Each structure stands twice: as C-alpha cells, then as structure tokens.
Amino acid sequence: xxxxxxxxxxxxxxxxxxxxxxxxxxxxxxxxxxxxxxxxxxxxxxxxxxxxxxxxxxxxxxxxxxxxxxxxxxxxxxxxxxxxxxxxxxxxxxxxxx
Length: 98
Known about the structure:
Layout lengths: L22 H8 L9 E4 L4 E4 L7 H9 L5 H8 L18
Antiparallel strand pairs: 1-2
C-alpha cells in the first residue's frame, strides 16, 4: 500500500460532511491500514472491498490520525523510510476529529 494520497476523495467517510459513521467506527477504520475505496475493487458476490496492488491509503484517515496526533505504526515506519510525508497532507480538506 502506498501513502501518497494527500486529499480525501469526495466520498471519504472521514469528511465532516459524511454522517454515515460514528466517531467510534471511524476510529476503528483508522486503527490500521485503511485503503481508499476508489483505489481497489469490490467482490460483488460477498459485497466487500478488495484492495489491489495499486491501492492507496485513505488520505482522510491519514488526516484524521494526524489531527488527533495518533499516527499508526505503519505511518511512522513509512515516514522514516521516506514513503510518507505528513506535511504534504491537505489539512484544509477537513476530516472529522471529534
């Protein structure tokens, strides 16, 4: 998974305008690697998301975690390896914090 997305997509569950998920559910999503749903595929038979080799980490989740000062382990590792740069995240693309 790559950590190169800097702005959430228009259907990102972490956007302030999206009310479908509670804060506890967003925290659950953001605990580990959370693929952007637009960078993978769907298994129609099981109605579930299937990440692809080209899947990107959800930018909304990254912003959410950075604003909460709670980056997960892979974010920290990727940052040390130069594969993720939190300063490139579009912080104006508001992701819910509370």
